[in-house]
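User: Quick sanity check before I run a bigger batch. Here is a single chain. Can you write out its predicted 3D structure?
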Amino acid sequence: MSEGVHAMQRSTVRQGRSRGMTLVEFLIGAVVLVVAIVSLLGLSVGQAGLNEHARNLSWAISDASRVMEELRRLNSGAACAAPTVTPQGVATWNEWLAGPGGGKSLEAAGLPAQSLEFVALSSAGGPDPLQMTVAICWRHRNRVFGECVWNGTALVPQQGANGFPNDGVVQSQAMVATEMTCRL
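Assistant: Done. Predicted structure follows.
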């Protein structure tokens, strides 16, 4: 009988003893935790890139709208005989947008070396109404957005087989198109 009592005591001791975590269990838990943290960091970095692209797109659309509003202003009033696409006082719309009182939004963000902007104005159709398209191309982090190419120093419209951009119109995510006529 004393043997049975001793066996029962040993069984009680084994059941009451808490078993600690093994090294394998600890390593599995650590790997799961590391995978979760790395996944969350990847999501955070990806979201920051998407936010940056959305901000740049918004600024580019704003610049295209500013150019279009200036075109509307130029083509209004009694002095307007036919719609014009030529900016006043400067040679190109790029110069106008970068000029005093304006400023290219992407370059004004303090990132001129990384984020360059190009305004492409295309016109088609008859003399009145004139179909106008304002497209903004930009370069950010060595990637060009819109139908332009980086020639090493500046953005220029992408050349098609006929020497012009596709159908004479530069396509971009930031693009505004309308038909323009003289307004009183």
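Strands lie at 115-124, 130-140, 143-145, 148-150, 155-157, 174-180.

User: Great, the batch can go ahead then.
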